[in-house]
Amino acid sequence: MGQDALVAATAIEVNRGSRRVLQGASMELGEGEVVAVLGENGSGKTTLIEACAGILPLRSGRVTWRTESGAERVVRDSDGRRTPPPSMGLTLQKDGMCGEETVKERLATALSVAGRDPCGGDISSLLDAWGLEHRSDDRVSQLSGGLRRRLSLLCGLAPAALSVDSRAVLLDEPSEGLDDGAKALLRGWLRGLASNGHGVLVATHDKDVIACADRLISIRGGVLDETTGESTGEPVVLPNACPPVEPSQIGSLIRWAFRMEMRNPIDTVGRATPAVVAMLLAYALIGNLDMGLHGSGLLAALVLAPAFITAVTSPALVRRLAEADCGRWWNAVVGPMARPANSIAAASLVLPIPLTYLSWFVLAGSFDSDASSEVLRWLWLPALSMLDLAVAAAALHLLVADLRRASAATASLLLVALVWPFLELTDALATIMNEGMTFGLGMGDPITTCLIASITSALIWLVAIFIPDA
After folding, report:
1. Domain 5-228 is of which CATH architecture?
2. Strand 72-77 with 89-91, pairing
């Protein structure tokens, strides 16, 4: 990796399915230059951009970035190592934005992830420069295709434009969908970033963007061929740099997921509705069931069933991340901790405990009153362990969503593994109902049974989170 290099790909080999797209590809992106990646459709331009961002696994070679301190960091290699890249700008081919975000929220999120802390006036001036200030409070889904692309580009360019230190910017087909005015603005910003010491790697077919480049990298048959560019175009004066702050990738991701759900609570409603229906059906049927010798176990299962349903229901976050490659953008800027953070943000952590208590009040009306008081004191224990199960279920849904043909796979086959911890929690609740709460740690004691359920859920979570990214 050269002294001035911000990003370096060394002898990387990348496959898309069974097809080898890049073979032994090496390149560097240095300070103060614009590098254009050229090639026919399907030649590997997007693959090179996403490999440099750390999104794609490598069959061989490695991708290295220069950190803020000047050290080299292996972002991804063929041995399975992966670390988050330093603060960067990134615009994917499909924008990488969720339609429920507002325009100014999206820009603020992109800057927060990159460790920039602009004031409200800076956000407004940036949006105004790209003709978006009048739409700042609108949702991304309400923008036209051209305005949406402008916002996506601004979110990729601004983290470097507002930084004093040299930053890398990765852009995939940035001029697609832009009008002539926006294309001219893009070219001015590209040269402005280069003149300020930043490096830009841009995959493009646009001749005017190509003319801005200092170097050209052509991809033919998976092999890179480098030539000198024209480096034409006048740089524009970029906004003043804003104070740096500690990047908050994981925190930004969790706050973003929470904000999207608060704005449109389809996840909460989607989980609660089938749970309440199941509770009402159980109430209608429970009077006709034989509650004899094994009645407490059956009642315990019915009480916990609504919480279990909310835990294993597919989260809305999966669909939000799938929209316009939103999940791939977060995967790039957060790095290997994106899926663990998503599994926590997507899990049903609010509903299981109140639903369990509500289910007990609805279904256990005929249960012995003295024993019922004891159960109410300790009903939180299996309900709390249900949260571990919910996080594991969210991880399994995210695992399926990351598959190349996610719609052809069914998460329900994997969710069967969570039946065991559910049965353990049912057994714990039945023991409390029959014998009261005991504080021993022997097999069959409620605390031990709940611990087994939580440990089992944790192991399923670990498998779903870490093995696929190895």
Report:
1. 3-Layer(aba) Sandwich (3.40)
2. unpaired
b/e per residue, 299-326, with b = 16+ CB within 10 A? bbbbbbbbbbbbbbbbbbbbebbebbbb
- The distance from CA 446 to its chain's CA centroid, rounded to whole angstroms, is 36
Query: 365: number of CA atoms within 13 Å, CB side?
Result: 7
Residues 6 or more apart whose Cβ sits within 8 Å of residue 101: 109, 139, 140, 256, 260
- Alpha-carbon distance of 139 to 156, in angstroms, equals 18
The CA distance from 230 to 211, in Å, is: 5
Mean pLDDT for back-to-back runs of 10 residues, the chain (470 residues): 89 91 96 97 95 95 93 94 93 95 95 83 91 96 96 96 95 96 96 96 96 96 93 88 84 94 92 94 74 71 95 94 94 93 94 95 73 88 97 92 62 82 96 88 92 96 78
Q: For 144, how many CA atoms within 13 A lie in the half-sphere containing its CB?
A: 7
Residue 324 CA to chain centroid, in angstroms?
A: 12
Nearest Cα to Cα of residue 329 among 98, 107, 143? 98
Show contacts of 106-112: CB within 8 Å, 24+ apart: 106/140, 106/151, 106/155, 107/151, 107/154, 107/155, 107/158, 109/252, 109/256, 110/155, 110/156, 110/158, 110/159, 111/158, 111/159, 111/162, 111/242, 112/245, 112/247, 112/248, 112/252
Q: How far apart are CA 363 and CA 280, in angstroms?
A: 9
293 CB-near residues (< 8 Å, 6+ apart):
none
pLDDT of residue 293: 46
pLDDT at position 434 is 87
Domain ranges of the chain: 5-228, 249-469
The answer to whether 190 and 206 are in contact (CB under 8 A) is no
Within 10 angstroms of residue 71's Cβ, the number of other Cβ atoms is 9
